[in-house]
Amino acid sequence: MKKFIVDKVKLMEEEGIKYLGIFDKENNDWYGEQSKFADNTLKVMYNKDTLLVLSTNKDVSILAPTMVGDVVEEIEYQEVKVNPNLYFVDGKVVELQNYETIKNGEIVFNRDKRIEEIKKELYDLRVERDIAPFEFEVDGVTYLQNNRSIDQSNLTRIVVMCQALKKATFENWKFYTKENSEKYVNLTIQDMMKMANIMQEQTTKSMAAETLLTHNLENLTGEELKKYNAKEEYEKAYKNM
């Protein structure tokens, strides 16, 4: 397989036309070397130090290695999607994950970065669970109630207020239908206390699931962390709370 490493670049002129002369350390000219690449291979242009892929193409003439340290190397053809995170490692174009880096020409797993990435996913799942609507039945009709912290706080204040004023009901609490239209319903104190308990239970379970999984991350192997499915693990933990 043919490989060309740019060693020097200099401005050239021929018959009044200026162009960049691109040479390897044996002083071979890039334009003359192009014919030595096979037709059916994938040509990969990358930086020899970082291994970052700069461009790929079957047609070698499309590539423009104009910087010292640019490498054009041909490999067996593989499909390559456009991606800014591609690297050339062990003769293949690979996509690095957020928790991987290149060191001494090899892919290195960054354990701490992967754990922080998973923690962020678990936090987002907990927040998503906190605000997820739940079904609540009033007088035989099922509504959707958004489990938002502001509603939970309002419920507590309203119950205290109703008890102080000796009111048995609260008028026009906002629910939603499954079609997402608003419905205003009168609630008894018992209804509000039941709904507040549901909200508190969901909040407690969602936080407990996040905490449990977050603490367990340190006990996982590198391979387990790489394959970790935060959503799947979170749902499993939440159901078991």
What series of H and E elements makes up the topology? EEEHEEEEEEEHEEHEEHHH
Q: Report the span from N to C terminus.
A: 58 Å
Secondary structure: number of strands: 14
Shape: elongated
Taken together, the total number of domains comes to 2
- Portion in beta strands: 25-35%
Rounded radius of gyration (Å): 31 Å
Average predicted local confidence, pLDDT: 91
Tally of alpha and pi helices: 6
Structural class, judged by helices and strands? Answer: alpha+beta
Biggest pleated sheet = 4 strands, antiparallel
Estimate percent helicity: 25-40%
Segments where pLDDT lies below 50 for 5+ residues? none
Strand order of the largest sheet: 1-6-4-5
Describe the structure.
It is a single chain. By secondary structure, the chain is an alpha+beta fold. It has two domains: 3-109, no CATH class; 112-240, no CATH class. It is built from six helices and 14 strands. The strands form six sheets. A four-stranded antiparallel beta sheet has the order 1-6-4-5, with no helix packed on it. A two-stranded antiparallel ribbon has the order 2-3. The chain has a two-stranded antiparallel sheet with strand order 7-8. Helix 3 runs antiparallel to helix 4. The protein is elongated. The mean pLDDT is 91.
Quick overview:
The protein has 241 residues and is an alpha+beta fold. It is 35% helix and 32% strand. The protein folds into two domains: 3-109, no CATH class; 112-240, no CATH class.
List keywords for this structure.
single chain, 241 residues, alpha+beta, 2 domains, 4-stranded antiparallel beta sheet, two-stranded antiparallel ribbon, 6 helices, 14 strands
